Amino acid sequence: MDTLQNTDSLLSAVAPAEGAAGREILDPATGEVVGVAPVAGVAELEAAIAAAEAAQPAWAAAGHEARSAALLAAADAVEAHAEELARILSREQGKPLNGPNARFEVGACAAWLRATAATPLEPEVVVDDGETHAELHYRPIGVVGAIGPWNWPMMITVWQIAPALRMGNAVVVKPSEYTPLSVLTLVKVINEAIPAGLLTVVAGGREVGEALSAHPAIGKVMFTGSTATGKAIIRSSADTVKRLTLELGGNDAGIVLPDADPAAIAEGLFWGAFINTGQTCAALKRLYVHEDIYDAVCEALTAYASQVPMGVGLEEANVLGPLQNKAQYEIVARLVEAAKASGARVLLGGNPDADQPGYFYPTTLIADIDNANPLVAEEQFGPALPIIKYSSIDEAVEQANGIDVGLGASVWSSDKAAARDVAARLEAGTVWINAHGAVDPRVPFGGAKQSGYGLEFGVEGLKHLGVPQIING
Ligand code: NAD
């Protein structure tokens, strides 16, 4: 069977049943129909929660070894369908097949399933002094809700569901209304490897997310999305005192120290900022460069950025794609126009082609821009990077810390010790040195300030999907 046919068979496997409500999903690069997603509501949510409650006790009783084996089998299933999943993701989300995009994202799904299966979580002896013997264990929570965004829809779903399943929970997933097919088809494949009822996708809108966050049978919500929605979830989950992991918006700063080598860091800076065409929570969104090397960094970055191909995702040469949706396109266009109107200097891009189909916004670099400019102060979440000149490290640190979110940050220097000193002063959940945005299933990840709370990945991530219990005696 050829790949396209397989793609079609996965898409038809998740299409609405005869007579049920459906919604056409359009490719953001071409406007073509990718497939039809079911339109689920609160009734489907109730059915999914009931199935989850029924399936969860046996799954919890199966133990870590059996659950890890099932996650490994799920990783195999994802790999067996990798190319079809990557094509669906590329057409629905817009990201190209190649580069750090669709094939990479599907590969990360399998890698995270495997790493989560392999992470040990032993009971911890907290005190053992002859009189007191106290151990810390983690029990399953029960049914976990997973609400996700549209930028990395498959990978973020796995980040949420893999530790939840591993810890003996069932999961109900509410995907973004922009990318339901990616999540439905991924979960369809994962469900080949785990018991029925444990993992269900309810492809509805915001009202399903609200109902999930307020539902008394949901013990925890894993949420990745905007800070505004995170605040709404805190409110709607309050009456049931739910546990929450909130991975929210960011507006990451990168600081280039005066001793950095512009030519050596240009590629890393570019991908730190433009991965997934800038639609990444922990992407570099504000670049602070010391005045001594400001022009050289602008030049090196422009030279690198101007040769990176953008276009329709299914064309193998492309590594940058369109914005995923019109609303996001309009945010980026508005912020760049405001920057231009303020007198900032356009080094590259800033000139979208109105006749081009799809939500393509060109790779844009803006220099000589004020720190208070909206393109710097707001999360642009697209392919437009402002480059701000600074003269003292204190000033750069103050500007980097001067906003109310703190997901990631980076420091770029030829002197690792100097970079680490600056890193320690930055109010961010992760600070990378000479890189930006790389994640690893063994290394905890989470935000500071209004970028959220709770940690994902590694043993810390598993602990966040369990209820701590002390056994004393
Ligand atoms: P969003 O907040 O608009 O939507 C996320 C999800 O929340 C969607 O599934 C949506 O239907 C649902 N939702 C909307 N209103 C809700 C409500 N009142 N109650 C419950 N659910 C509701 O976010 P988005 O636009 O899809 O994603 C982009 C944002 O996500 C950016 O701010 C980005 O920085 C952030 N993000 C953060 C991380 C991270 O790890 N910190 C990762 C990816 C994206």
Features:
473 residues, alpha/beta, Aldehyde Dehydrogenase, Chain A, domain 1, Aldehyde Dehydrogenase, Chain A, domain 2, 2 domains, seven-stranded mixed beta sheet, six-stranded mixed beta sheet, globular, binds nicotinamide-adenine-dinucleotide
Describe this structure in words.
The chain is of the alpha/beta class. It folds into 2 domains: 3-248 and 451-472, Aldehyde Dehydrogenase, Chain A, domain 1, CATH 3.40.605.10; 252-440, Aldehyde Dehydrogenase, Chain A, domain 2. Helices cover 41% and strands 21% of the residues. The protein has 15 helices and 20 strands. The chain has helices at residues 3-14, 42-80, 82-93, 102-118, 153-166, 180-190, 206-214, 227-237, 262-274, 294-305, 326-341, 374-377, 393-401, 416-423, 458-463, and strands at 22-26, 33-38, 124-128, 133-140, 143-147, 170-174, 199-201, 218-224, 243-247, 252-256, 284-290, 345-348, 364-367, 384-390, 405-406, 408-412, 430-433, 448-449, 452-453, 466-472. The strands form 5 sheets. It has a 7-stranded mixed β-sheet, sandwiched between helices. Strands 7-6-5-8-9-19 form a 6-stranded mixed β-sheet, sandwiched between helices. Helix 14 links the parallel strand 16 (408-412) and strand 17. The longest helix is centred in the first third of the chain and has 39 residues, at 42-80. The model has no long low-confidence stretch (mean pLDDT 97). The structure holds nicotinamide-adenine-dinucleotide. Nicotinamide-adenine-dinucleotide binds next to helix 7 and helix 8.
